[in-house]
Amino acid sequence: MCSDLSEIFHYVQPTLDDFILYDKNKPIPAFEQNDAAAVASLPTENVAKTSILNELSNLQDMVSPSNVLYPGDKIPHYAISSTYKKGEYLDVSIGEIYDLSKFWIYDTFGELKPLMNDLQIFFHNQHNKYLIPELLLEEGLYCTCLYAGEFHRAVLFVDYGTVGNVQSNKIWYLPKQFAKVPCQAIRASLSNIYPAYENQPWNIAALNRFQELITNTPLVAEIVRIIKEDNILEVYLADINNEDNIFYINDVLVKEGHALYID
């Protein structure tokens, strides 16, 4: 309303909820002129937004625990082209699965298990201290959420590739000590196969069979190709549960009619 009556008075907005009004026909007091100039330099629609952002920043400083991630802070990602090599073999576990050309793997014996153990211990007794006020939630903020009863780095669950809905009143700050380990989920695709039906996506039968084949069994991924620009590994996935009968899941899916070889 104040900004709509500029022909009647000058105004200065020192805080989010306060406006000081001055007669348009009289000069603004000297001590307010700098503030007025700053306000005048902003587009009218941005004045309130700027004040709100300032207030939120002040609120965050007052209520947030120290040494946590704020908006703009990052968790590093593996640059797979410099971390892995074509022909390398990795002990892997499977995280989220969208289809046979888009799923996430992580190093079975890597840093994820110790990280998850430390997260559970840390948040078990002091999670209330790190709860984020809903007013301070912001897109892109790395935080902590519960998934299947365990605390995870989130909201995109960066260590498993999972995307899920979470309640806004159950999101916690992520302490910086848990941001040192790179995001563990690595996007992968089964190499040299495509859906059995040309120009069709992977069907539910193929997806279900893939899930059956990778569940509760040790797996090794042979890196066939590294797609650098998308940070994706194309792999042959081997079931090594029985050393006398090691087989590639890619081949089983073709043999059972769920997929075809590319060449």
UniProtKB/TrEMBL annotation:
Source organism superkingdom: Eukaryota
Gene3D superfamilies: 2.40.50.90
Stored InterPro entries: SNase_OB-fold_sf (IPR035437), Tudor (IPR002999), Tudor_domain_containing (IPR050621)
SUPFAM superfamilies per record: Tudor/PWWP/MBT (SSF63748)
Pfam families registered for this protein in UniProt: TUDOR
Domain (Tudor): residue spans on this chain: 85-192
A single GO cellular-component term on record: cytoplasm
Name used for this protein in its record: Tudor domain-containing protein
